[in-house]
């Protein structure tokens, strides 16, 4: 094996070792990443468990707070206050008061399942009042509703006569006539400020099965258990574990900051403390459940590492061969050229380095030649700018930096200078004279305007570009005057007649091509009229021999039609007609060519949209083919305009279909999410997958009202239906239909219906009774 390794090319061995070293770097990084991912997965699972327990704690405390709020509402109930303070001999006759109180408290069980079983003890009359009946003696009540193993006297002393302030009694077996259950008891003495002897006591019996549902997130997700202890260490509630098993657990975290989780045997213990009540919520999660994601990462990482290692070795061998083979061939070729034997013991890299050094040393002039190419690059850049080959600012900035040209503004002038003496001859003397003439004109232009960009444009022409950063109107006359003076100077000093063609000023770099094309047209016009000096495009004759249809106009027409803007497309078509048939007198051949170009534009449009509607495309292609250039200009333009209108109508129909679909999606979403108080245009746009401004504009155009007015009307309609249910409070209805507060709901309802929600409910009930 060692002999085989030594027989391999040294270059191949070096490349292979390099690739193997490079391969080891990502493997080491992958291992570190793997360990980090394992730790992150464990921490993530722990955070998720703590978050789940925290959510269970918050939900349960919220429910208990609602129970406490229920007792506070009873404390301010005027009917109950009269019953508590009435004398015992009068209480026996206040049957209506008791019946009304029973009816009022019966609805509370519908809003909170913790309030499904409760009673009120009235001390002055020894009555026990429940939502369904009245017990005239506590003994009668306790016979059919009592705690397992607790005497009547103990119950009466601790629950009825003692001044309890939001006391929570841990879980205890409770027996009724029909069944037995385990309950957690909440006791509140009334009035709330009764410190010695209360006038009444409210006792709420909460089924532990209902409370346990809030702890089931831990048990269902991880297969663990959970329990709650009060500040005295008594177990208030448990899920998935018995009291005897709880007593066996050691090292339970206290739930204080810094002592939230501990690992005990194969379990992770998590505790959260409620600082207000002093309750501690504890959960036990099996470590195996927490490591599910970590084990998955471990398995995937192992498989990927093995695949990467094998693939890396194969790729390393292939790349080492591919990289070393050309070098070996180069070395062998050099040795043959130098008459050396292939097996000579020359160091490969030293051999190549020596030969390349001599090659570089003998070609120092290469750098100078590259430097000499800069003027050519500059001229090429100016030519591209003049013909409008740059389509975005990034491309223009990169090309200008490469050419060393400083673009000082977006506005300016483009033109052509023609030297009339040196054209049409290809003799060596004539070419030399024309080169000298172009150099003189170039230097004169740059002296007249130092910021002017100048380049050769054929044997007898120079193109020039003058950029400005401000408005052009005050500057145009000055530029033309300088060119006029320059033409006179060149003729008087060198007997060199020079004509300058000027296009219309441009306000953006995208219009440079248009302005330069106009300069060429102006110069062509000057060739027929023998005019000298500066010839502006505006001064050109109407009887131009060529038609007007520049590429930028065609591009603008195509984009306008594709956007469905038929009005703007017809305006561009009218502009083309005016420029060709009113400002010019085109020959028959030029007219045919113009119509052919317009037909070609329409065919380009159909090719780009060929897959949308084959039948429409085929019909339009047939109509384009039937256009003949001998039917009269007005008729031809009318036919082309009609086809443009058909295409724009098709685009508009697709837009309208998309608008209707979007509006339908928005309305469907509002129907399902009107109860979300945080609903905004951002959520709606995200749901339907469209921009916010588009959704807002399209909805208002389609429905005749903003989306938020539609949403408010929808919410008020839903609230009107819910108000017919007397069991629902107005505050709850406001929350259900998406209002943050009952006050804002009442204002919105009155604005929409003209009356308040309570008056609407009363009117509806009055109508039902009639």
UniProtKB/TrEMBL annotation:
PANTHER family given in the database record: ARAC-FAMILY TRANSCRIPTIONAL REGULATOR (PTHR43280), HTH-TYPE TRANSCRIPTIONAL ACTIVATOR RHAS (PTHR43280:SF28)
The protein, known as: AraC-like DNA-binding protein
Keywords for this protein: DNA-binding, Membrane, Transcription, Transcription regulation, Transmembrane, Transmembrane helix
Top-rank taxon, per record: Bacteria
UniProt feature coiled coil, ranges: none
Species lineage: Bacteria, Bacillati, Bacillota, Bacilli, Bacillales
SMART domains xref list: HTH_ARAC (SM00342)
The UniProt record lists the keyword Metal-binding: no
Membrane-spanning segments: 15-34, 300-321
